[in-house]
């Protein structure tokens, strides 16, 4: 009786209602939008939109009802509606929790020198940072000749669409907070709320938040204590980590969080379905929920069925606890954080129920809005290392699915108990996914014995032969040269198979005697050599 009387007041317009005075619900219904809307009329609820894009006969909808009605009562009534098979509250998901440690400025963050990285000019401190060396980014790329493929969707605050490092790989994306095309987080900047300024050349400074703990001084000064922008830059930094690992994969920014770090579960679900329907191969989720959601599980099951690989951060509370989506281990690889010593970060959650693997999550240097760079702490920045790994696995072996990727990534470096399979090692993961990367050998050099008079030269011919499908580039060199001798290689490197010439010059000042030279060929972690006996007369 109380419920019907309250509905009467609401429907007669005698109860005030505003945009903020509504509870939000997620419903799975078999009857469709129109039938659900009709059923909502006597309950005082409104069907706002479809969430899932109807991947099957059950459809998922966002429904609102006045805040003044007990949400438990609304859920009970909605579940009694014919065709409704599931109903749950639409959770508010916080993106940025506080960290339990004070960060220090990474030494490399002050290095603004630029290097070329897959066609873009980026900071050397970004490409060659310790985190990249720990998981062996460059070695994995060179050894297995991969740079990422497919589309990686990131559900986050969006991206700076004009960042120079990300040009050429960014897709337009979608903004679920505004229901409009484009995944830019720059749309959150409002002049009335003191937004952070562009200052790409400023010296590093501190900011007390986990999104970007060390930025340039002017940006840090604005963000520190400004709740409107405590999550600003989070998406750009996460996408930068993915790009570091898999620079040729396409990036799909899906904006489900605002710059305050606030998002709705319904927008996250919409982003998952959007990613699948727009051909994403990988979905990264650098956030965590404390409460289980049936619809989140169903959405990720759907993604898994479509061969989408999913990664998620385990959270930054520094405890053993169940967080989602990391706990949905059939569909998601949960990622914890480690430091440069392969120890669990003190802020990182842990426990094998949520951690599949760990990755660096401290002082990770990445792209930041305004074309700049920052250093970040948190499991949010560990998960994208594994998302990038998934793109490398797909480059190596197209069609790799969630279970295969998880099995490959499980070949990791042990880092102690409650940390899943250990710390990510890209070389081990790729070796496990596709077997050996191929190999090569070096032959030739006639009899590999040379008698050369001082002041003369001699040329030797060698051949690099590809084995087991090897297609890499072999860089050539020589060791153990005696003083006053020199060599030239023509060409200096061989891709796949091919001949090269080594010209050995002996100066007048070279001492008489016998020497053993070693001609080397190197490709990633592969290294082979042949010896040449030199007798100087």
What does this entry look like structurally?
The structure is a single chain. Helix 6 packs parallel to helix 13, helix 8 runs parallel beside helix 11 and helix 9 packs parallel to helix 10. The chain has 13 helices and 29 strands. By secondary structure, the chain is of the alpha/beta class. Strands 10-9-13-8-15-16-17-18 form an 8-stranded mixed beta sheet, sandwiched between helices. It folds into 3 domains: 89 residues, ACT domain (Alpha-Beta Plaits), CATH 3.30.70.260; 294 residues, Peptidase S8/S53 domain (Rossmann fold), CATH 3.40.50; 98 residues, Sandwich (Immunoglobulin-like), CATH 2.60.40.
Quick take:
The protein is of the alpha/beta class.
Largest sheet strand order: 10-9-13-8-15-16-17-18
CATH topology of the largest domain: Rossmann fold
Tertiary shape? elongated
The unreliable regions are 1-20, 208-212
Main β-sheet: number of strands, strand sense, barrel status?
8 strands, mixed
Estimate nothing, just give the exact number of structural domains.
3
CATH class of the largest domain: Alpha Beta
Features:
five-stranded mixed beta sheet, alpha/beta, Alpha-Beta Plaits, 537 residues, 30% strand, Immunoglobulin-like
Topology:
Layout: H1 2-11, E1 22-29, H2 33-40, E2 46-50, E3 59-66, H3 71-79, E4 84-89, E5 92-94, E6 114-117, E7 120-123, H4 124-127, H5 130-135, H6 137-144, E8 151-156, E9 174-175, E10 180-181, E11 204-206, E12 214-216, H7 217-223, H8 234-245, E13 250-255, E14 262-264, H9 265-277, E15 282-285, H10 294-305, E16 309-313, E17 333-338, E18 357-360, E19 364-368, E20 372-376, H11 383-396, H12 402-409, H13 426-434, E21 439-444, E22 449-452, E23 457-467, E24 473-479, E25 485-490, E26 493-495, E27 498-506, E28 513-523, E29 526-536
Parallel strand pairs: 8-13, 8-15, 9-13, 15-16, 16-17, 17-18, 22-29
Antiparallel strand pairs: 1-3, 1-4, 2-3, 5-14, 6-7, 9-10, 11-12, 19-20, 21-23, 23-27, 24-26, 24-28, 25-27, 28-29
Helix pairs in contact: 6-13, 8-11, 9-10, 11-13, 12-13
């Amino acid at each position: 009786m109380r419920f019907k009387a309250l509905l009467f007041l609401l429907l007669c317009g005698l109860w005030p209602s505003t945009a903020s005075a509504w509870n939000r619900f997620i419903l799975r219904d078999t009857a469709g939008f129109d039938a659900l809307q009709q059923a909502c009329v006597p309950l005082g609820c409104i069907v706002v939109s479809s969430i899932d894009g109807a991947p099957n006969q059950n459809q998922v909808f966002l429904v609102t009802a006045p805040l003044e009605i007990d949400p438990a009562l609304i859920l009970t009534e909605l579940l009694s509606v014919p065709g409704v098979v599931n109903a749950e509250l639409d959770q508010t998901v916080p993106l940025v929790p506080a960290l339990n440690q004070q960060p220090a400025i990474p030494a490399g963050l002050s290095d603004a020198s630029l290097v070329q990285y897959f066609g873009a000019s980026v900071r050397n401190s970004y490409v060659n940072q310790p985190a990249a060396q720990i998981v062996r980014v460059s070695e994995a790329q060179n050894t297995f000749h991969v740079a990422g493929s497919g589309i990686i969707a990131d559900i986050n605050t969006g991206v700076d669409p004009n960042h120079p490092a990300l040009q050429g790989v960014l897709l337009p994306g979608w903004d679920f907070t505004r229901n409009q095309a484009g995944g830019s987080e720059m749309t959150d900047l409002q002049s009335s709320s003191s937004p952070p300024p562009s200052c790409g050349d400023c010296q590093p400074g501190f900011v007390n938040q986990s999104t970007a703990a060390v930025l340039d001084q002017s940006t840090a000064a604005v963000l520190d204590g400004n709740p409107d922008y405590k999550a600003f830059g989070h998406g750009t930094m996460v996408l930068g980590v993915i790009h570091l690992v898999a620079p040729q994969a396409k990036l799909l920014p899906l904006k489900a969080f605002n710059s305050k770090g606030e998002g709705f579960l319904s927008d996250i679900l919409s982003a998952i379905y959007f990613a699948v329907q727009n051909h994403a191969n990988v979905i990264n989720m650098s956030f965590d929920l404390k409460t289980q959601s049936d619809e989140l599980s169903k959405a990720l099951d759907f993604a898994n069925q479509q061969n989408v690989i999913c990664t998620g951060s385990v959270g930054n509370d520094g405890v053993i606890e169940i967080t989602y989506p990391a706990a949905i281990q059939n569909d998601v690889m949960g990622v914890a954080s480690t430091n440069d010593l392969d120890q669990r970060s003190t802020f990182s959650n842990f426990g094998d129920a949520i951690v599949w693997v760990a990755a660096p999550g401290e002082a990770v240097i990445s792209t930041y809005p305004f074309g700049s760079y920052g250093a970040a702490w948190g499991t949010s920045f560990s998960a994208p290392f594994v998302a990038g790994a998934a793109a490398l696995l797909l480059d190596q072996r197209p069609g790799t699915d969630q279970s295969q990727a998880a099995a490959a990534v499980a070949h990791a470096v042990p880092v102690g108990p409650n940390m899943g399979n250990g710390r990510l090692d890209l070389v081990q993961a790729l070796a496990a996914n596709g077997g050996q990367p191929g190999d090569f050998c070096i032959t030739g050099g006639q009899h590999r014995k040379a008698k050369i008079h001082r002041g003369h030269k001699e040329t030797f011919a060698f051949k690099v032969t590809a084995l087991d499908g090897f297609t890499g580039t072999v860089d050539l060199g020589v060791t153990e040269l005696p003083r006053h001798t020199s060599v030239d290689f023509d060409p200096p490197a061989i891709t796949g198979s091919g001949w090269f010439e080594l010209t050995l010059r002996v100066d007048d000042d070279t001492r008489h005697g016998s020497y053993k030279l070693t001609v080397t060929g190197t490709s990633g972690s592969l290294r082979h050599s042949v010896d040449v006996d030199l007798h100087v007369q």
